[in-house]
Design a protein that fits this description.
about 25% strand; about 200 residues
Length: about 200
């Protein structure tokens, strides 16, 4: 079975491919293998809407099974931001560092449980005709640190501390993060479905 990971984010491709390669008879590609493909604008109000739209668009455009991820960070104390705007919290062309800086500035003065946050990941699997076959969600709860720590990972990893841990995702070894993250939880559910199909 040929399946494309519907993202050009190299970090996400690496995480998703590590899981999908465990399944026999799976040929895994990413949008990096289809240079002429134009990704659609993310206009959904929820992670689920975005994941479904991205999976269906890639599947129909490339006539291949497609797996899309939409994920982000939610901080209840600041109205659920960054939420679906996680990748562009500080602006349309913002870097990860600029997004983290804006988050920490926005959360100045918040302490303790006010710094509670969670990552969410929605994975949607679409058939080559664009119909959604399966959709799963994974989440990971923790707190936002007062400053960046660690150089591993990407996005908000260096400011997020999972409950039960003392290090940020940016300080944890990638193999550890890939076992406990929101994306790992969603992928575990998707893997169970794919292996039983």
């Amino acid at each position: 079975m040929r399946v494309v990971i519907a993202t050009q984010n190299r970090h996400k491709v690496r995480e998703l491919r590590a899981y999908l390669c465990k399944i026999k008879n799976f040929d895994v590609f990413s949008l990096l293998d289809f240079s002429s493909y134009q990704s659609p604008q993310e206009t959904g109000a929820t992670f689920e809407e975005n994941a479904i739209y991205k999976a269906a668009h890639a599947a129909r455009s490339l006539n291949i099974w497609a797996l899309a991820d939409d994920s982000g960070l939610v901080v209840p104390a600041i109205g659920g931001a960054p939420g679906v705007f996680s990748a562009r919290f500080a602006g349309p062309q913002a870097t990860d560092k600029e997004n983290r800086k804006k988050l920490l500035q926005t959360m100045q003065g918040l302490d303790g449980l006010e710094r509670s946050a969670y990552f969410t990941c929605v994975l949607a699997l679409a058939r080559p005709d664009g119909q959604i076959q399966y959709c799963v969600t994974g989440s990971c709860e923790g707190l936002i640190a007062h400053e960046e720590k660690g150089r591993e990972g990407f996005g908000y990893d260096s400011v997020f501390v999972k409950h039960g841990y003392h290090q940020t995702f940016g300080e944890l070894d990638e193999s550890v993060k890939n076992r406990i993250s929101h994306r790992a939880k969603a992928l575990s559910k998707m893997l169970l479905y794919l292996e039983s199909s």
